[in-house]
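User: Fold this; tokens only.

Assistant: Input:
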Amino acid sequence: MSAEFTVEVPVRYRDLDPLNHVNHAVYASYLEAARTEYLAAVLDMDEADLPFVIANLEIDYERPIVKGDEPTVALRVTDLGESSCTMTYEIRVDGTVAATAETTMVYVDPESKRPSPLPNEVRESVREYEGFESAARS
């Protein structure tokens, strides 16, 4: 794997619930911010043109994120399927894991708007970044 891909995400006032905890649903937006930056960087694409949809999202909450915290999201692709890929995440605050997550993303052909096999250039860019072997992964 290349250097760990991390993105700092700010805790905004609107992210907080009445107890000054980041609302559970906001964690998904932190993942989205990191995932979008990863895909734009690794695939060298404009964020508006990223051809993926989320098919599954799972989040495990370890500890609350609160006002004044400075979260970082670390992520990596752990599996490349025929038309999908799996990403795993850790949201950390001061080196402590606040949440772990996993998404399954499906590649959507930009013209047909239907799930399609990952293009070779997408597959190879992710393989190269993550240090995967060239053999097909499922």
